[in-house]
Amino acid sequence: MTKQDAFILSFRTVVSYRLRTILILLAMALGVAAVVILTALGEGARRFVMNQFAALGTNLIIIIPGRSETAGGFIGALVGETPRDLTLNDAASLTALPGVRRFAPLNVGLSEISAGGLLREVTLAGSTSNLLAIRGMRLAQGSFTADNGPNPAEIVLGAKIAHELFPTGDALGQRIRLGDRRFRVAGVFAMQGESMGMNTDELVLIPIDHAQALFNTQSLFRIMVEADSRSVIEPTKKAIRAALKLRHDGEEDVTIIGQDAILATFDKILRALTLAVSGIAAISLAVAGILVMNVMLVAVSQRTAEIGLLKAIGATHTDIRNLFLLETLWLAIAGAIVGIILGYLGSLGLRLAYPQLPAYPPIWASLAAVATALITGIAASILPASKAARLNPVLALSRR
Q1: CA dist 223 to 152, 255, 315, Å?
Q2: Measured between alpha carbons, how far is 115 from 329 in angstroms, rounded to an integer?
Q3: In this structure, is the dihedral angle defined by the CA atoms of residues 79, 85, 86 and 87, taken in order, positive or negative?
Q4: H or E element in which residue 176 lies
Q5: Which of 244, 212, 206 minimizes the C-alpha distance to 100?
Q6: pLDDT tens-digit readout, 15-41
C-alpha cells in the first residue's frame, strides 16, 4: 500500500463513520478550546494587572512606614504601630537625593463631604501637586497648586463626586464642607475610572497639611517618589534607605518598594497561574485521548472483516497500523482546528463581556494546545492500531 493510498483510504474512512468522527472531533475541539480560553483568561489577567501598575506612574518608588521582615515582623505591627512614623520632614529630606525627580507625601482616609444640602462619604487623599504628575492623574477643570508650606484650603473633586454635588457643572469656586472644615473647589479630575483599587472618579484631593489636621495625625501613609529614569531606581532606593536610616537614629524601619519589583512579582505569579490553568485544561485533552482509544478499539472489532480483506490482498502489519494512525491524525487535526476557532471565539466573547480585560490567547498556548491534541490522539491510537495490525487475516475474514 502506497502512502498516497493510505492517506486517501484513511480520509474516506473518517468521513464515512460520521457519528464516530463527530464524537472524537468534538472531544478534541473542546479540549483545545478550553486550553486556549483559559490561557487567554490568565494572560488577560496578567496584562490587566501590568497595565494597572503602569497607570500608577513611571519609575515609581513607594516608601511605606514599618520594616517588612521575612520572619514575622515586629510586635507593634499587630496593633497598627510602627517603630517610627514617616513625617513631612522625612519626605522633605528626599529633595536633595540623587535620582529623585519629585516626591509626594500621601495620606488616605474616609471623610464626609457636603454641599448644597447633599452629604456622602468619600475617599480622601491628602498630598501635594506632585501627586498628579507621579500618578498620571489628569484634571478636566481647574488646577491644584498645593505645595509644601502653608496651603490654601483647596479641594479637587472626582468627576462622579463633582457631578453628584453640582449637576449643572459649576463646581469650580464653590465652597464644600469636608468633615469640620471648609474648602474651595479648585479643580475636577478627568473621568479615569478605577486603578489598583482606587476609583479616581470618587476621590477627593486636598493639601497634605489639611489632611493631617483633619485626620489628627503627623504621620504619613506613604511617600511616593518618582526617579529620574528606570536605570537609577535601584541606586535611588539605596540612597533613600540610607537617608531615612540616618534620620531614624540608625534604625532601618521603612519598606521601600520599586515599581519594577512589584511588576516582576505579579508577572511571575500570574504567569504561573496561567500555566496552572492551562495544565488543568489540558486534562480535558487526556480525557479526549481516552475517548479516542475506546472508540478506535470498538472500530477495530467492527472492521475485522475489512482488516482481513486488506491483509488478504497484500497489506502488511505496518500498513494496517499506519492506516489507523492516519485516521486518528485526521481526527486530531480537524479537532485542533475547530478547537482553535472555538477558543478564539470564546476569547473574543470574554473581551466583549469584559472590555477592560485584554483576554488575547498567547501564540504559545495555541501551538501547545494543537501539539498536545496531536500527541494525545496519536498516543491513544497506538493500542488500537497495534491490535488491528496483529489480527490474523483468515480469522478476521471469518469475523472471529
Answers
A1: 21, 11, 80
A2: 72
A3: positive
A4: strand 175-178
A5: 244
A6: 777 887 888 888 888 888 888 888 888
